[in-house]
């Protein structure tokens, strides 16, 4: 290597070189691309586009020009980057759903709130909006500094004069290196009122200042929930806003309700929002929507969500707020360039920086205009001398050999300056008429007034700020409009349980493990012997096996045949219509392979002093504290240890002081005190509750609690009620007594229930037919009778289960419900 090259080498650690290079790159991105200037609220690309359009005369009163010409001019003179980036920036400044006060007037397809892209720049046209002209006003009066463009060929403005506080009015967003800005738009009259208050009273308290500006005002309107997040970023420059779609309710003549979305949160894609709602319906994560369509047009936004009958619109709406972009969070970061340095500013600091900028603009503009006026006055003074001595001046000019001699002679004779003398020599003969001489005098007098006014402005900061205030008020009058975003009361993070309305639901599960919930309002009471209605459509070879009533806000403890407990909220069970198949319970619970759900227990609270009593197919009883089941793991927890060949069939919540009845398939029952079953741990096996005869098995368990009667029902639709007193209390472990005379006509026992006189019953068949009837319509009989016909079954159908609607008011009616 040559010696001179080695002498130019500078030893340097690569870590230092990388660090310095990265810092240089970061600052280039921060200052030259990603962050807005606090003074005009613009990034370099926005500023260059507006300046270029102003340069080529694309003013509001001029014809539109192709966007391609604007993009080309910006690229050629100011912004040496990709044409796509420049055009996208231009498009955004023309979109009324992106900017609160658009700066560019676009003609053609400039995109839509559905996420549609703008047409190519060869198809669209553009010109400046009047508000953009306000931002560029007086740029030719030395009001702002200019700097060289990328190739030093021309000068470009480093900031615009900006008569409006654009940073707050239109907001800004951008991601730099290691920092980001996200400034929401605001209402122009409110921001200007706030700025004027600072001019009038610089020491105004924060509280008084904040009272003048309600909060962000987004172009799409919608709701802003609460003022806490607003006040946070007013004070600190950071805050968290919750935006919600605006929804109105419409009711059709048939009574069905619709939710109509008329405004959506800022920067939410409407088409994507509709897709989100449709996906939730498809996945059955929301229930109650019968139709969804977008009826938006030029008149405004209108997304219609039609609801099914009896759908709780409040609960549905809040679910949509939780699961879709109908509610979004807008994180505010008021980061902008202040004196070329990125700073997180609060509201007062942003307004003070803008007012300082406007003060400097007014000062420089006034100085420029004063200098121009004084120069013109000086010329007019020379012209007045010329008019008063016109004959002598004409003679001097005529007698001079050339212009230079004439100029020097006039300057010496009348004491004129070079500029005045040149103006006299350039004067047209028409200025010598009487009318023109008067015009010179009038112009001179007006100039003297203007000079006095401008000097007064320059001599007093107070006067300069009055000019700022006056121009702000003019902007408010010309461009101000009402707020679009409505601020409502604070909304906490949505808890799904809080938005679910409490209602009794029928929970149905089939033999093959399909589950759903249906409102009890769906079923209409019938008298004994009715045919019923379809309560659930089942697949081929499937049938309804279990059914019970629970409130939407209760827990359901699912007990499997293998003795495992799983935990779920009732509202977590998908809701379906009468003929809906439901969803596989395995999709809701993490069941073990080969296991099935055997029993369900609705629980509101896991209280101390409460117990879970469980019964198995082989007559084993188990009692465990309810609090031990409060927090099941994902795969469930052991509820009962089971002997080989046994399985869990039923479970109930007790207080430890009840009587218990176990009934078997062959019509036997035993009644004993729950105290005879000692408390055990979750993994224990339990003790004998009833001794079974050969071929028999337990089908149900009752824990007495309401001093009612014992209802028994058979697979062929027979049943009866008996007094509990007919079953004497014995010790557990006995053979029991006859509870129903099982014959070929009645079929085997399938269900036992404790009922009161005013209870309503739900009877469900294997093929899925459901009938609702009052318990008072079933006679009380002796233990050994076979009962009466409860339900007329179709050929080949059998009764599967019975459930009680406790304390439900019975309404008259004999009509058969039609599907």
From TrEMBL:
Cellular component GO terms held in the UniProt record: chromosome; cytoplasm; DNA topoisomerase type II (double strand cut, ATP-hydrolyzing) complex
Enzymatic reactions: ATP-dependent breakage, passage and rejoining of double-stranded DNA
GO biological process, one term: DNA-templated DNA replication
Location of the protein in the cell: Cytoplasm
GO molecular function per UniProt: ATP binding; DNA binding; DNA negative supercoiling activity
Top-rank EC class of the record's enzyme: isomerase
Enzyme active site: 123 (o-(5'-phospho-dna)-tyrosine intermediate)
Keywords: ATP-binding, Cytoplasm, DNA-binding, Isomerase, Nucleotide-binding, Topoisomerase
EC number: 5.6.2.2
Matching InterPro entries: GyrA (IPR005743), GyrA/parC_rep (IPR006691), Gyrase/topoIV_suA_C (IPR035516), Topo_IIA-like_dom_sf (IPR013760), Topo_IIA_A/C_ab (IPR013758), Topo_IIA_A_a_sf (IPR013757), Topo_IIA_dom_A (IPR002205), Type_II_DNA_Topoisomerases (IPR050220)
UniProt motif (GyrA-box) ranges: 526-532
Domain of life according to the entry: Bacteria
Annotated Topo IIA-type catalytic domain residues: 35-499
Note: Few gyrases are as efficient as E.coli at forming negative supercoils. Not all organisms have 2 type II topoisomerases; in organisms with a single type II topoisomerase this enzyme also has to decatenate newly replicated chromosomes.
Assembly with partners or alone: Heterotetramer, composed of two GyrA and two GyrB chains. In the heterotetramer, GyrA contains the active site tyrosine that forms a transient covalent intermediate with DNA, while GyrB binds cofactors and catalyzes ATP hydrolysis.
Family named by the database record: Belongs to the type II topoisomerase GyrA/ParC subunit family.
Record function comment: A type II topoisomerase that negatively supercoils closed circular double-stranded (ds) DNA in an ATP-dependent manner to modulate DNA topology and maintain chromosomes in an underwound state. Negative supercoiling favors strand separation, and DNA replication, transcription, recombination and repair, all of which involve strand separation. Also able to catalyze the interconversion of other topological isomers of dsDNA rings, including catenanes and knotted rings. Type II topoisomerases break and join 2 DNA strands simultaneously in an ATP-dependent manner.
Name of the molecule in the record: DNA gyrase subunit A
High-level lineage: Bacteria, Candidatus Glassiibacteriota
This protein's encoding gene: gyrA
């Amino acid at each position: 290597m040559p010696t001179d090259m080695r002498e130019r080498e500078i030893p340097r650690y690569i870590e230092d070189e990388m660090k310095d290079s990265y810092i240089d790159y970061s600052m280039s991105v921060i200052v030259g691309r990603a962050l807005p200037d606090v003074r005009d609220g613009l990034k370099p690309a926005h500023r260059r586009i507006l300046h270029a359009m102003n340069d080529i005369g694309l003013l509001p009163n001029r014809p539109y020009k192709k966007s391609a010409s604007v993009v080309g001019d910006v690229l050629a003179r100011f912004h040496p980057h990709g044409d796509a980036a420049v055009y996208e920036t231009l498009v955004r400044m023309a979109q009324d759903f992106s900017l609160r006060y658009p700066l560019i007037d676009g003609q053609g397809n400039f995109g839509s709130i559905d996420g549609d892209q703008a047409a190519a720049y060869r198809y669209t046209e553009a010109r400046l909006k009047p508000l953009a002209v306000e931002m560029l006003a007086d740029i030719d009066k030395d009001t702002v500094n200019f700097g060289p463009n990328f190739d030093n060929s021309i000068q470009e403005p480093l900031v615009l004069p900006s008569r409006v506080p654009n940073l707050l009015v239109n907001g800004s967003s951008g991601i730099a290196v290691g920092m980001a800005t996200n400034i929401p738009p605001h209402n122009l009259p409110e921001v200007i009122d706030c700025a004027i208050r600072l001019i009038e009273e610089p020491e105004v308290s924060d509280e008084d200042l904040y009272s003048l500006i309600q909060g962000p005002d987004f172009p799409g309107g919608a709701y802003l929930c609460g003022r806490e997040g607003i006040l946070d970023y007013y004070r600190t420059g950071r805050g968290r806003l919750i935006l919600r779609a605006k929804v109105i309710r419409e009711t059709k003549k048939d009574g069905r309700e619709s939710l109509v979305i008329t405004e959506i949160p800022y920067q939410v894609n409407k088409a994507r929002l509709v897709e989100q709602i449709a996906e939730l319906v498809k996945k059955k994560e929301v229930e109650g929507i019968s139709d969804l369509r977008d009826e938006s047009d030029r008149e405004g936004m209108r997304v219609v969500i039609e609801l099914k009958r009896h759908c709780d619109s409040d609960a549905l709406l809040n679910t949509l707020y939780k699961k879709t972009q109908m509610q979004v969070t807008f994180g505010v970061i008021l980061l902008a360039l202040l004196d070329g340095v990125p700073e997180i500013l609060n509201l007062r600091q942003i307004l003070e920086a803008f007012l300082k900028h406007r003060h400097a603009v007014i000062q420089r503009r006034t100085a420029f205009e004063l200098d121009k006026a004084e120069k013109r006055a000086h010329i007019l003074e020379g012209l007045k001398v010329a008019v008063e001595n016109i004959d002598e001046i004409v003679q001097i000019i005529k007698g001079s050999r050339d212009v230079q001699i004439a100029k020097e002679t006039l300057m010496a004779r009348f004491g004129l300056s070079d500029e005045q003398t040149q103006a006299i020599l350039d004067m047209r003969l028409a200025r010598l008429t009487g009318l023109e001489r008067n015009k010179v005098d009038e112009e001179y007098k007006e100039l003297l007034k203007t000079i006095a006014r401008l000097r007064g402005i320059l001599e007093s900061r107070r006067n300069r700020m009055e000019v700022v205030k006056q121009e702000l008020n003019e902007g408010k009058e010309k461009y101000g409009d009402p707020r679009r975003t409505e601020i409502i009361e604070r909304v906490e993070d949505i808890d799904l349980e809080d938005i679910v309305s409490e209602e009794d639901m029928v929970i149905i599960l089939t033999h093959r493990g399909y589950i759903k919930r249906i409102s009890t309002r769906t079923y209409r009471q019938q008298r004994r012997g009715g045919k019923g209605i379809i309560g659930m459509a089942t697949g081929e070879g499937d049938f309804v096996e279990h059914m019970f009533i629970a409130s939407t806000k209760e827990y359901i403890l699912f007990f499997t045949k293998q003795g495992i407990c799983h935990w779920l909220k009732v509202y977590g069970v998908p809701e379906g219509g009468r003929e809906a198949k439901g969803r596989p319970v395995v999709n809701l619970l993490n069941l073990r392979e080969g296991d099935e759900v055997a029993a369900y227990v609705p629980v509101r609270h896991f209280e101390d002093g409460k117990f879970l009593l469980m019964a198995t197919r082989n007559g084993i009883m188990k009692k465990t504290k309810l609090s031990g089941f409060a927090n099941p793991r994902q795969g469930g927890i052991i509820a009962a240890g089971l002997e080989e060949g046994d399985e869990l069939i039923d479970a109930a919540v007790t207080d430890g002081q009840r009587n218990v009845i176990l009934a078997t398939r062959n019509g036997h029952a035993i009644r004993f005190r729950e105290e005879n079953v000692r408390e055990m741990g979750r993994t224990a096996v339990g003790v004998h509750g009833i001794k079974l005869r050969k071929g028999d098995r337990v089908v149900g368990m009752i824990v007495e609690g309401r001093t009612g009667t014992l209802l028994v029902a058979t697979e062929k639709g027979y049943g009866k009620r008996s007094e509990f007193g007919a079953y004497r209390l014995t010790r557990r472990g006995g053979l029991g007594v006859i509870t129903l005379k099982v014959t070929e006509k009645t079929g085997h026992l399938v269900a036992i229930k404790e009922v009161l006189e005013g209870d309503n019953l739900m009877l469900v068949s294997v093929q899925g037919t459901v009938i609702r009837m009052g318990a008072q319509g079933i006679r009380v009989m002796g233990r050994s009778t076979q009962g009466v016909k409860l339900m007329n079954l179709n050929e080949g159908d059998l009764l599967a289960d019975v459930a009680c609607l406790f304390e439900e008011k019975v309404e008259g009616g004999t009509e058969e419900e039609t599907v």
